[in-house]
Design goal:
The protein has 256 residues and is of the alpha/beta class. The protein is 29% helix and 29% strand. The strands form two sheets. Strands 1, 2, 6, 7, 8 and 9 form a six-stranded mixed β-sheet that branches. Strands 3-4-5 form a three-stranded mixed β-sheet, covered by helices on one side. The two termini are 33 Å apart.
Amino acid sequence: MTTADRWTRAVREQVGLGRFLPLGGVRDGAWIAERAAREVLLAAVRDVAGARVDGLRLGQADPEEAHAPVVPAPPTALPPGPLRMTAEVSATVSEPLPTTAARVRAVLAGAAETRLGLVVAEVDLRVTALLDPDPGAAPGPSPSPARSAAGGTARPGPAPAPAADPGGGDTGRAAAAALAVPGVTRLTGTLGRAVTVEERTGDAALPHRHVRVECAVSAEHRTVEVARRVRTAVRDALEERPSVAVLVTAVDLPPE
């Protein structure tokens, strides 16, 4: 593969991730790729009777309620603050549409908070199509698998290739500390290197070191809790206790 091909592939991968959504609050220093969050949410809502989610987006609920994070944010990252979830839903008429919509809304909001750690203030649903009822199901039809906005079945995307050996020194120590955290399945390198150590300078702060860690986590652990543990482990593993940002680029769902 040529350098141009690798660059093109990297850009496509970054675009496919979507924006980075804040996990937790301003002091958590953690984000998750929108694509990874969407896959978890679609999987959670897949078995809701009488409904099929055809598209799902997440964005800021109110920019005025967003705040600057305590660590440098990654490219395309939204600042910590409440999020709005917007979903397009196809539903049957076996039950009143408001009843079905309320069930979908509750599952999405619950999964966002309990599985991921996203702060979701609003869940907006639009019923865009009606499904034929299945007389053999109760109380409504067994839904078709949830589909992504692109129309494909919602399943975890292909696992990225293992990140290159981060090497020794502080980068290697940070990588080892992150990989030792329960719930971390692998390091990734979608934005470049899986672990980046840099010197940060700014007008409002003294020069300091900053570490950015990209990783994938298991769906069996709450994502924000894993990210918090990674931040602590990496900070404690290095001298001078640098600031640490954690980017979750994938959540490994169990096989269907």
